[in-house]
Structures are given as C-alpha cells and as structure tokens.
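LAB NOTEBOOK - FOLDING QUEUE
OPERATOR: T.R.
BATCH SIZE: 2
PURPOSE: Compare the predicted structure-token outputs for two unrelated chains run back to back under identical settings.
PRIORITY: normal
REVIEWER: second-year student, initials M.K.

ITEM 1
FIELD SEQUENCE / FIELD STRUCTURE:
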Amino acid sequence: MDLFLENFASLASLQQIYPLLLQGLELTVLLALVTLPLSIATGLAVAIVYSFGGSLVRRITIILIDLLRSFPVIVLLILIFYSLPFFGIKLGNFTAVVVALVINNTGYFGEIFRAGLLSIPKGQHEAAAALGLHRGHTMLLIILPQVLKKVLAPLASNSLELVKTTSIASMVALPELLRSARVAQEQTYNPTPLTAAAVIFFVMLWPFSHWVSRMERRAIIGSNQR
C-alpha cells in the first residue's frame, strides 16, 4: 500500500506540480466555456435552416449533419492545425481546437435540435400563421421553448461529452489539464499528476453527469407514461 501511495498519490509530487495542474484546469474550463455555447448556437442554426428550408436544403442539411458527426474530431483538428497553413491560413493552437470542436459538435447538436423541431406538431405552426405571426416569431416564441424542454436531456449529455473531448487540445501542444499532467509527470518521474488530473476531471464532471442521468431517467419515465 505504501508503494502504491508513493507512486500514485505522492503529496510531495503534488505540492511540486499543482500550479501546472491549475493552469491546465483553467485552460480546460476556458475551452469548454468557449466551445459549448458556440456549438449549441451553430447546431441550432443548422436545425432552423433545416426547418425553414425546402426539400433540397433539407437534404443538404442532413448530409452536412451526418458528415460532421462521422468525422473524427482528432483528425479534424490535425487537418485544421497542420493542413490549413499550406493554403495560407494559420490558426493559433487555441483557435484551432475551438474550431475543430465546434465543427464536430455542430453535427451532434444540430441533430438534437432537428429531432426536437420535428417532434412539434405542424398544427402549431399553422395555428400561429392563422393568428398572423411571422415564421420567425413563431419559431422564437412558440416552437423553441417547447423544443428546449424536449431536448434538454440529450443536450446536457452531449455537453458533458464535449467537455471531455477538450483533452484533444494536447494533440497541438496546448497545455490543457491532461497535457499539463503529462508534463508534470515528466518533471517528477511520478504518475501522481495523472492521478490528480483524473480526480479533478471526476470531481468536476460527476455532479453534472449525475444530473444528466436523472434527467434522462425522467425523460424515459415520462415517455412511458404517455
């Protein structure tokens, strides 16, 4: 037991490298705070375009959503960061990670919102039109509030996955939490920083994960009672 604690839970190593872990945690949180609202906004925009568009626009939107969801985010990040400079476009590490995460998650959030929009009866659109409401007003005031209530659970679940995916920033040497832990491990010759990073991720994400699970169970129970 003493050997295990010395290698995986060394207080001396932790005291030496905790500033690195805090720096990595700050960057991880910043990535999540930037990419999450952008991904939700672009996903919602794609779903609204699908809702308002004709048959051709809808086909193109479906292809776009499927393409974005099927493209591995790591490959996307590598293409953005290493390939775009050959075309005269050079993005910084942080910007490249944000762009890759937003592009990838736009597909997931777009499909969530699209499914939510399709679940609203067409009669509500027709009733709003009969009352003289513009399509934009109908979407904003009547449809979207219902959609958000229906898709809250999958929206929260995908948001949780997005936060986990921020660790891909280490692929372009961005010092997020996981990379900072690896650098700290190299400095201390001890895996304690990796253990600490795992604990930080768990403490940060478990309450949110528990909340998401409760919402999903409620959604299942609600659908079974209908």
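ITEM 2
FIELD SEQUENCE / FIELD STRUCTURE:
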Amino acid sequence: MSDMRIMMTADAVGGVWQYSIDLARGLSRLGIETVLATMGPAMTARQRAEAAEIPELRLIETGLVLDWMARDASAVREASSAIEQIAKECEADIIQLSTPALAAQSRFHAPVVAVQHSCVATWWDAVHGSELPADFQWRAELVRQGLAAASIVITPTAAFGHMTQRRYDLPTVPRTIHNGRTPLALTPRAAHDFVFTAGRLWDDGKNLRTIDAAAARIGVPIHAAGSVLTPQGAEVKFDHIHCLGLLDEDQLGQWLAARPVFVSAALYEPFGLAVLEAAAAGCALILSDIPTFRELWEDVAIFIPARNHNAFAHAMAELVGDDCERARMGRAARERAARFTPDAMAAQMASIYRSLLPAASGPRLTSRVAA
C-alpha cells in the first residue's frame, strides 16, 4: 500500500497533460499514489487509456474551467473550491496544482505544491512586452496570490523561474525541477531531408510566422504538427508551412523517426516538451536564442535570434544539406535528452513532497500504512 497520496490537477489540452502523466508514471514506480483531477475540455479515449495503464493512478474528470479560459475571477474561485473539496475527499497528503491561481483564495487541508507551467502574464511579457491588457490583469493577480499562498513553487527551468520572480516580484526564485519525458516509440527508418516543428501553431508565443517566412527561402519542406485553431475557434493559416494537424504519439513518432531537422522559433517557452521529444528521437536542433533553450540545450543546438527569418532559413538549409553535421548534432541532442526522464523528475518531486509532510497529518499517514 502506498504511504503517500498526491492529488494533482492537470488538463488534457497540451503539455501539462504529458507532464502529469509522465510524473504519475514515475511516482508509481516509487510507490506513490496519484489522484489526477483533470480540468478543462474532455479527455480523449487515448488519454484515458494511457492513464489506465499506470499503477497507483486514479483519474477524476472534473470538467472544471481552466484559469486561462475562465470568464472571470469568480469562475476560477469556483473551480478552486471544487478542487479543494476533491482533495479532502480523497485524503490527499500533498496537493499539486497545475496553476498557482487555484491556490489564490482556497484553504487546502494539506501542503500545496504550485507548479508554474506557464501563465498569461509572462507570455505577454515575452511576446508583446507592453502593459497587460485588462483581461490578463485579474488572471495575473490570481497567480500572484496563489504563488504567495503555496507551500512551495516549482518551475520547469531556472530561466522561467527568474521570469516568474521578476513578473510577480517574488522574494525568492522558485525551485527548478526540469520536466521529464518518456521517449516516443520509434520505428527505425532512413533519415529524410525535411524540417519539422510541433506545438500550438496558433500561439503567437511559438512564433510560427518567422518559420513560415523562412520556409519561403529554402528548398526543403517544413512540416508542422499541432492545432491551428485558437481557443476562440479561429483558424490560423500559413503560406509556406505544411500543417499536419494534431498528431497522436504514434503518428508523431513516425515523423520524428525520420530524424528531420527540428526547429523552434519560440519567443516564449517555459520548457519545451516538443523539443525534448525531437531530441530524444535523435533530431538535430535549431532553436530560438531564448534563456530557456540555452539552459537546456547549450552546446548541442544551433541558436538563432527569434525573429530573424533569414538566419533561420540559412541555418535550416545548411544543416539539412550536411549529413555528417546533422547526424553529429542528432547524437548530441539524444545524449542530452537522456538527462530529462520521468524517473529523475519524479524522484526530485518525491523529495519535495516528503520535505513537506511534517506539515501534513502524520497520524493519518501512519494509520494508512498500518492498514
């Protein structure tokens, strides 16, 4: 029987789901039970099946609104109250929140680990660099309150931790625990000459316009995986990128197995799971020169100023045409990617959980083990 139970919030929209499922998988190997409460849009059948395969994982689909999709602050507070009740009912020893906003005005019965995966305020700072619009200001205020209320704050990179500290004027930098990722299943195949990228293609923070402009200047195709539909339902179109739509893990693995040159011109990236997936597959990396990517991929990637489409075009054309350098960089990227595993992430998170347990209900833990 598990001696610790974590209640973790997540969503099924993007990288937070993959982070959560990989963390739960790593925690299960440590004998730690996870209650995963999903929020936002419904999960897919594949996601439910993925969760069902993990020992020590219980899934609760809440349908509660995500903070960044909420109509107002009261909707976030309602969602937070519901999560608070779920945490009590499942007798969680630790509550891990996928956004600090959920801790803003709730009084959880157990220590709160707030994982700052991203937020609209730091996104706006990186993409626009101007004053926050009114609709972002109240969201940022909830995050600020939640950061102050949490027992500990985690960010996936030190670079994003410093960004968070500056934006919210925190007295200390959040604790860094790098994300881990289970490598995609790959069917061996010959390398192919194309460029690949993946992510939320509609997101201005991913800066696909720069890649689209670069695509017009090179003679090899650029394929992009991910949604082109904004949360409001509008479709983003590109002139030169071949958009593949949303791919499942098997489909993504098939594309990456060809070891294309992987490119990201992101302006904002708290971590970048898509880059890690590509690196683990042995893809050579061309990345925007932002602090996050420098922290993770220094010495194994080519770095380009984020908005310089001419420099991206030149780097992509040169690397696609140089088989030896492309293979060397792919091997280096794979070796670096091997550092970022679910087990390493889970071990560090488990250490944090245990450091917080003196503030939790010790007798209940003892009685659970005895039972």
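REVIEWER COMMENT (ITEM 2): Residues 114 and 227 are 27 Å apart (CA to CA).
FOLLOW-UP: none requested
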